[in-house]
Structures are given as C-alpha cells and as structure tokens.
Amino acid sequence: MPLRSLSLQLYSVRHAIDEDLPGTLARVAAIGYRQIESSYKLYSRGPEFLDAVTANGFVSPTMTSSLIDVDLDAIFSAANRLGANTVVDTFIPEEFWTTDDDVTRIAGHLNAAAVKAADYGLRVGYHNHWWELERRFSGRTALETLADRLRPEVVLEVDAYWVAVGGEDVLGLLGRVSDRVRFLHLKDGPVNRENTQQLPAGQGKLPWPEILDAVPHLEAGAVEFDDYSGDVFEAIAASFAYLNPKVER
C-alpha cells in the first residue's frame, strides 16, 4: 500500500539544529518535506522552534517524549500546541527489559499515560530499538510481549531497521503486530549497530515495498538517521526522493 504521509524525524538533523534551528528547518522544507516528527525536547527550546515550524508550514502528527516519571500534562499540552495526535516514547533503555516483570512494569506506565493522553484528545505509542527484539520471554520477543499488555488504544511506531538488527524477520514481525502499527521509522543500511553506516531508504538491505504492504493501518512513515557518515542533508534528500513517490495523492 502507499504511504499516507511522510515525515522527517528531526533527531536526524539534531547537530545542525543545535547550530541554526531556523536555518535547518528551512533546509528541510527546501528538500520537500512538509511533515516532521518533533520532540518535547525541541518544543522546550521555546518560541524559536514553534516559530520555525509555522514559518515553514510543517505539520507534526507525532511528537516524541519519554512517558515515564515525567510531567505528562506539560508533554500533552505541548503536543496539542504542535497539532500532534500521538506522543511516542522512543527510548526505554536496554537495562529495563531484563525480565518479564520489567515488561509488565513498562506496559503499566504506557497504559497510565494513555489514560491521561485521552484527556487531551491524544494517543500514546512506543518505538523500538533492537533490544526489544533480541530479548525474549516464553519464546516471544519483548516487543510482542509488551504489545499483549498494552491497552487497545496504545499504538506502535516500529523501527523496521532495528527489528532487523535485533535478529527478527521484519515482515514476519510486522505481520504479527500489524494491528498495533500506525507509524514506521524509515532508514536502511547493512543491518548492524554501526550507526554511521546507516543509509537512505532504498539503498540498504530492507525490502521497503514489502514492508509498506505489511502495515495496512499505517498513518505515517518518518525518515530517520541515528547517525550518518556523510552529509545528512543529502541523505534525507535521497530518502525523500525514494519515498515521496510512494505517498498517496
């Protein structure tokens, strides 16, 4: 199926943002992006960020933030200001996924956040790295174990590259959790943990047409680079050139 919409996860250009926030967002817009995945951290920088978002005509359907032991009211208020519909927790470190009880505890935090989010007209979601796929409980990945314990309204933002790095068949995993997946992170590469070797979508080992077909409820894909050995603006432009034709018109 085609992509419904295409974002850039602004973490990809974080170093440029640190040097020149307005200029960086203008460069992203010049490439052709009209949608971003922003963060509570960026929002917290103050009016400069919101001004740049508005000046470039960006929409931000997703915003990322920790959802554990934080001020949820402040986070969800920020998401409303940005016009986001979903707040995604993108990083619960590996050491917190040691036991089955750990997964239950994480699910409890996300479920509590989901109840609070509903008061703001929002959903919450979770984004994986590789360790939620490497770690298994009763023969199932920690990510799937987590999904089993989440409230129905909690969604997943699956990073397909990290699924592969975690040793799972991406299409198989997506098939098992497709009812939860509303967002994808879109990056490519040789499938290893060396972030500087990440590549634009379509230039690595992941079968993107098949991946997109495996997610029938997908609302948005977000181009992302954890790191890149070359010019990251060239990389996000290459991903845009590959993926934008797949966006439904």
TrEMBL record:
Q: Does the keyword rRNA processing apply?
A: no
Q: List the GO molecular function terms.
A: isomerase activity
InterPro entries tied to this protein: IolE/XylAMocC-like, Xyl_isomerase-like_sf, Xyl_isomerase-like_TIM-brl
Where is the Xylose isomerase-like TIM barrel domain positioned along the sequence?
Answer: 72-217
Gene3D superfamilies, per database record: Divalent-metal-dependent TIM barrel enzymes
- Per the UniProt entry, the signal peptide is none
The protein's superkingdom reads Bacteria
Keywords on record: Isomerase
Pfam hit, one? AP_endonuc_2
Instruction: Tell me the PANTHER family matching this sequence.
Output: HYDROXYPYRUVATE ISOMERASE, INOSOSE DEHYDRATASE
Q: What is this protein called in UniProt?
A: Sugar phosphate isomerase/epimerase
